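Box 3.1 A note on notation
Throughout this textbook, protein chains are presented in two layers. The first layer is the amino acid sequence; the second is a token string describing backbone geometry. Keep the layers aligned when reading.
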Amino acid sequence: LSAARSVLIPIQCEYYALEGLGQLLSVVTRIQQGLNPRLFIEGILLTMYDRRLNLSRQVAQEAIQYFGDRVYESVIPRNVKLSESPSFGKPVILYDLESAGAQSYIRLAQEVIHAEKGLGQGA
């Protein structure tokens, strides 16, 4: 983080995720105050989201309430193909391009690129 321009923070839609996020934000703040004042939070990515679970929805709501538009619209769901792909030595996009997990990461990439272009930092 001391050499990074920005940080993308993934958080699992699980019970302790927001507590861990608070600790990570504290680390980012210390780095901004010392080693890297230009470091900024690119965005917060909700992962392992299961729309059937109240807990996932609650964590997502709290993240959006606290961080607003810094939370990406793209959400990475719980997905079997995401879990299987590492055991086959492939990223999910090569393992199963049509899976919900792969499609979610593609949407995230498009969202990040769009945001970069909007900031005048894109290619």
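The chain has a mean pLDDT of 92. Residues 60 and 66 are 10 Å apart (CA to CA).
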